[in-house]
Specification:
This protein has 13 helices and 10 strands. It is 47% helix and 19% strand. The protein starts with a strand and ends in a 7-residue tail after the last helix. It is globular, with a radius of gyration of 20 Å. It is an alpha/beta fold. The strands form 2 sheets. The chain has a 5-stranded mixed β-sheet. A 5-stranded mixed β-sheet has the order 8-7-6-9-10, with helices on both faces.
């Protein structure tokens, strides 16, 4: 038996194929295949190429795959799900299923679907499971209530810098730190948001803005620490909301997934742990969410994997963390 997991994100696409023992026999990383970012046809082409590459590396063909599972960023509303279905149907896989990419991240971070997943990558989404049901909150845009995501947080920093410069808000060291990184006033990069230009440059600036946040926080900058406090507040609100409607046995696993958390400064992680108390265990996986897609593929195929299966799979990324 062979199981294929696919993580379809906005910035990258991961494809992993494993055998019945959990041995990873191929792993391919391609560019993002979220149709909302690249269009329907391009999304299909990226997926088709990545899957073909993974199969070629595995010396397998489509018919030898027992089951495939996709975690797809942007698979939220009914009309979006229809579009995703139309793309996946063209791949002509024998047995497959899909869900939002937050679903595979919950499985990847907890392995047993018991815990709370808070993902903060390009965007943000949360999932939780208590052994009886799986629930989801958020995962939309900032306009519709999202308060996490690398771009959302970077925008908090950019906003604080602009408001500091024109004296609508408190002074912040982030102003000097960021502008020294880009060697120009922050106002000179505004056109990357306003104009219909390549957003990859804005993504580069977002990384520098978040770096500036941490550097200023280490210098006890009030505004930077307040932004970090806002991030912690949002995490507490998410955890509290799930605790109100689901039953968890402490210690509760809280999985922090996504590029923002995986690259977070220890000061932020310590703030989160302090606010949550010892009733919670923070987990920041070293392995990618595609692991969850592989596990869900195996489950959908009716295959009962064990701890050895998981250990073999995770050994590719340095073991269980």
């Amino acid at each position: 038996m062979y199981f294929m997991g696919i993580d379809v994100g906005g910035s990258k696409t991961d494809v992993a194929i494993v055998d019945k023992n959990g041995k990873l026999i191929s792993h391919v990383r391609a560019s993002g295949a979220n149709y909302q970012g690249v269009g329907v046809q391009k999304a299909y082409e990226i997926l088709k190429s990545a899957i073909n590459d993974a199969l070629q590396k595995s010396s397998l063909n489509y018919n030898e795959l027992s089951y495939s599972y996709f975690g797809v960023a942007g698979a939220d509303m009914d009309y979006e799900i229809k579009i995703v279905k139309s793309i996946l149907e063209r791949l002509q896989l024998k047995n497959y299923d899909f869900d939002n990419d937050g679903r595979i991240a919950l499985k990847s971070g907890t392995f047993d679907d018991k815990g709370i997943l808070i993902s903060c990558g390009t965007g943000g989404i949360t999932y939780a499971g208590d052994g009886k049901k799986i629930a989801r909150k958020g995962g939309f845009s900032r306009f519709f209530g999202e308060r996490l995501g690398a771009f959302v947080i970077a925008s908090m920093v950019a906003s604080a810098i602009i408001r500091s410069k024109d004296q609508r808000d408190e002074n912040t060291l982030m102003k000097q730190i960021f502008e020294s990184k880009i060697n120009q006033p922050i106002e000179e990069i505004m056109h990357y948001e306003y104009a219909n230009e390549d957003k990859s440059k804005l993504a580069e600036y977002a990384i520098l803005l978040i770096q500036s946040l941490y550097e200023a926080a280490h210098q006890f900058d009030y505004v930077a620490l307040r932004i970090m406090g806002n991030i912690v507040d949002e995490i507490i609100k998410i955890v509290t909301a799930y605790r109100k409607e689901m039953y968890f046995t402490p210690p509760v696993k809280v999985v922090l997934e996504g590029s923002f958390f995986k690259k977070a400064d220890p000061i932020l992680i310590n703030m989160i742990q302090s606010a949550l108390s010892d009733e919670y265990i923070l987990i920041i996986p070293k392995h990618p969410p595609v692991v969850g897609a592989v596990l869900l593929a195996a489950e959908k195929a009716g295959y009962k994997y064990d701890e050895n299966f998981i250990a073999n799979l995770l050994s590719h990324w340095g073991g269980k963390k």
